[in-house]
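User: Show me a protein chain along with its predicted structure.
Assistant: Here is one chain, sequence first, then structure tokens.
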Amino acid sequence: MKNLFKTTLLVTLMAITLPATSYAMSTSVTHGNAGRTDAEQSQKLINRLEEIKSMDLKSLTRKERKELKHEVKSIQRELHTNSSGVYISVGAIIIIILLLILLL
């Protein structure tokens, strides 16, 4: 009886999460070209940052250094917002651990 309950719970959870996964996979396929342009744009921004780092800043005027500083900050912000990652909150981790304890 206990194994039947665990199996039923596992199948139900898989049935709930399966449509969400397939939807995410289908949307990523339609936007495949956008990922390439983001990668190209990111590479251009990284190259620009390397150019700025290789510059001799002492030969520039104060105003030019200030403009470069603002440009570097804006590039870093843009690169940070373009990066994709998976963030899991503490509450989600606790729920996952509790589910693992209950299922095992």
